[in-house]
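This protein record is not my work; I was only asked to verify it. Take the sequence as given and treat only the tokens as open to question. I have pasted the whole thing underneath without changing anything:
***
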Amino acid sequence: TNLFVINMNRLVLLSSLLLAPTSAFQTVDPSPKQALEGRRKFLGTAASIVATGILLPSPASADNKSFAPGGTLVDYEVGVNVGNTEASLSRNPDNSNVVFGQDYYYKFGTAPTWIENGNTDFPKTMPFTVSQQRYDTLKKYGERVLKGVAQVSSVGQKIESNEFSEILDGQAPEYMIRPMGLMANGFLASENTGTTNELLLARWYINEIALDITDIKNAKSKQDALSAFSAAKKATNSYLSLINRVITSKVGDKLELI
């Protein structure tokens, strides 16, 4: 439909040009023979333009192309839980309701898999940051992040006692969502690397923690709350596992998972 509209617009434009008086194109009146030859050439060019537009649609209009929220044109299906069926469905398709707008979904338009404890298959590599930067970052944010992790873990007790409607919203400061993001910045990016894909990945996990907790709070049943809590724990542990990969003995102790 969009392609048809584009081609119709081309035809309208070309028709207006063809019907325009000669003075609109030239300042000197041509001879009748020159005018006829000029019109023939113009018609030939116009026909080629229209035919090209019909036979060769732009890549963006092809059925197998999609746009990620950040504007990247990709040739695969895009969706908030494409790639991970446990990803929160409460994420807005345009990523407008998360704490860190520029995350993995923002760039790639899909949801990454969870990271199992000790698994280094995904991501394949980690960005380089100097150990002093990681040491300073862990010293500054480590304790706060662990408090947030403990707060996430305590949500399970609220669910078991059927008090999940009284749980704090996922973006409440008690979960330390922003300190988690700041720690990821110090571990997974530097002035030399800029914003890395691994940092975007960490932000996705952090955003999922907040979304999942809000899903728990808004759950209509205990089963729904438990499902969201399971995802929240996996998101938390994935984030911690990612950070732990770059916590060496020179940096400090690895973070304890839920």
Q: What stands out?
A: The chain has seven helices and two strands. Confidence is low (pLDDT under 50) at residues 1-28, 45-62. The beta strands are 66-67, 73-74.
